[in-house]
Amino acid sequence: MASDPDHPKPKTSRHKCPACYKQFNRKLHLIEHMKISYHSVHQPRCWVCQKHCKSFESVREHINSPLSKTNCSKIFVEQGCNLCLKVLDSPSALKEHKQMCCLVAPAPLGTKITPCIESNVTMSGSIMDEMHNGKAQKAVAMDCEMVGGGSDGSIDLCARVCLVDEDENIILHTYVQPQIPVTNYRYEVTGLTEDHLRDAIPLNEVQDKIKKILYNGESVGRIPPDGGKATLLAGHDVQHDLDCLRMKYPGFLLRDTAKYRPLMKTNLVSHSLKHLTKTYLGYNIQCGIHDPYEDCISVMRLYRRMCGQDHQQVFRLGDEKANSGFDSFRSMELEKKAPDELYEISTSDYKCWCLDLTKDCNPGS
């Protein structure tokens, strides 16, 4: 049946998400979307149109996809940094920014047989005062190289470990004596031979050295909710390194570049450290033998780059329920809220690392 031109069909009012711009026919559907999307100021977003995405990879797809908005693609090509995805005001500002954003690869330590390198890891009183006054909590990055044990060489055994501080200084570097016989040195990747481990430090001594660095005088097992004197530990699949070291460390003090939501693939699968370093820092690593110092520096740089994001927190005055999540509101209350108000009460489902630099931040991974 043909439509009557004198009485056109009324247009359906659609409800648009203020974060990712999806549209819904019913307000209820928008509310359900906001509940499961966890939109917040901490989500990666397009610097041109401000669309929120699950990860930086999603932002890249939004900008570079053949289906992307022409305006976003055009502006980014002319004014965007392909590493941090920021859009600058002018070509000259972009050129200056890229010179700072694209980093130089650190010189690897190599596999020369060297004694244990260990610096003074005791923090000064002024640094500790800053931590307790709510300033940035200190972090160290750690990376291990594994050799193989067992009949088929498939058991990961820590044979080399390196820790660096935020200024990229080596805190600890040493070869580690595995507790069971090595059946595969994985030379093509590790560059290690029997000679490297002949006079290596026993695992229990290495554990003690690492604990001294991480706990910094804090009583093991009694770390307060704010971390106290204990330091943040950054790494790539850092829990695997800890497992191979046969060590435990509180999850809320771990910062893992393999599992940090904004650095993961769109389907929330981890990227390799090699990929993250090239994509976000601009240089290559692991071109031959894997060097733990090189990997440590890259992890620390990724961590600091993620910490350095300026996310303006949203606060609604005059509403005690604001920013407390959707569960604090009844369905009828949510139905009455505008899309922007729904966004204001939406909270992230992961802890953004930028909060490590703020005074009032809840611990979380």
From TrEMBL:
Keywords: Exonuclease, Hydrolase, Metal-binding, Nuclease, Nucleus, Zinc, Zinc-finger
Record localization: Nucleus
Gene Ontology CC annotations of this record: nucleus
InterPro entries from the UniProt entry: REX4_DEDDh_dom, REXO1/3/4-like, Ribonucl_H, RNaseH-like_sf, RNaseH_sf, Znf_C2H2_type
Pfam families in UniProt: RNase_T
Molecular functions (GO terms): 3'-5' exonuclease activity; exonuclease activity; nucleic acid binding; zinc ion binding
Domain of life (superkingdom): Eukaryota
SMART domains, A to Z: EXOIII (SM00479)
GO aspect biological process, one term: rRNA processing
Segments forming domain C2H2-type: 15-44
Family: Belongs to the REXO4 family.
Name of this chain's protein: RNA exonuclease 4
Originating gene: LOC107922930
